[in-house]
Amino acid sequence: MIYNNSKLTHLTVKNRVQYSYEKNTNDCNVAYHRSRTGPNWFLVFYKNSACIRYTPKEVGRVFGVAKFTPWVNDMRDWCYTMVEKYGSDTDKDNDEYRKYIEKHGFGPEVHEEPNDNTKMVI
Hints:
Blueprint: E1 2-4, E2 7-9, E3 16-20, E4 28-35, E5 41-46, E6 49-53, H1 56-61, H2 70-86, H3 89-92, H4 95-104
């Protein structure tokens, strides 16, 4: 904070970028924050409470018994795409992320070995 002519002024530091989920409502809001200096994180606002979570699985746990509704499933898929797109190597080393990639995949190369479907011609 800087005092400028007896006025309190906050410094605006651009050290993080925020991506909001496109289906957010006033009652439920999820945003992904990228940070330069620390780990990336999700900000979840649900039931008049805001909390920070680091993995998509933890984000899903915030919703309790509603964690398998279509909205939450779509939001969790969005969280995984954010980690795939902007996540660091430590985010991608997570076991839950690997299981998600094996199940849903981000291309055909995830589901099969490249040498399994080849034949040798002599």
